[in-house]
């Protein structure tokens, strides 16, 4: 198996919560080499893929039907404060986290029983 693809499996298995430096050490290559080969094989750097996985896990952790503890959500996403979390959220969605939830709640009210009304299904 190519080093980039094994690394992507680790990133996926940890939902992006892995230190990229640890991956380069485990692969026995420099972080620069890992990033270059990873981008050639996967299409993005390992850091970018981990960021994408962390964000997806964060969005799936939001229950639009209940109260949301933004501090816990930000911490779970690896951010030390809500300001950085909000910036990351806007970078991915173009919306603030609160606006995202408002839009999601509106959508679910207008489309009850929609697939987005439940947790994501397993890929298995």
* Overall strand count: 0
Mean pLDDT: 86
Percent range of helical residues: 55-70%
Question: Largest sheet, described in full?
Answer: none
From the N-terminal CA to the C-terminal CA, the straight-line distance is 21 Å
* Beta content: under 5%
| Structure class | mainly alpha
- Work out the helix count: 7
Rough outline: elongated
Keywords: DNA-binding, Transcription, Transcription regulation
Organism: Streptomyces kaempferi
Domain HTH araC/xylS-type: 20-103
InterPro entries: AraC_XylS_family_regulators (IPR050204), HTH_AraC (IPR018060)
Can you describe this structure?
The chain has 124 residues and is mostly helical. The protein has two domains: 3-49; 62-117, no CATH class. The chain contains seven helices and no strands. α1 (3-13) crosses α3 (31-42), α1 (3-13) packs parallel to α4 and α5 (70-76) crosses α6. The longest helix has 16 residues, at 46-61. It is elongated, with a radius of gyration of 17 Å. It starts with a helix and ends in a 14-residue tail after the last helix. The relative contact order is 0.10.
């Amino acid at each position: 198996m190519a080093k980039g693809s094994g690394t992507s499996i680790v990133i996926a298995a940890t939902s992006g919560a892995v230190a990229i430096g640890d991956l380069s050490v485990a692969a026995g290559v420099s972080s620069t080499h890992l990033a270059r080969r990873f981008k050639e094989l996967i299409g993005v750097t390992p850091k970018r893929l981990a960021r994408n996985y962390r964000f997806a896990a964060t969005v799936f952790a939001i229950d639009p039907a209940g109260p949301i503890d933004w501090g816990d959500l930000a911490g779970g996403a690896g951010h030390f404060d809500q300001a950085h979390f909000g910036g990351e959220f806007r970078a991915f969605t173009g919306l603030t986290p609160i606006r995202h939830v408002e839009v999601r709640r509106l959508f679910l009210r207008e489309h009850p029983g929609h697939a987005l009304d439940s947790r994501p299904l397993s890929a298995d």
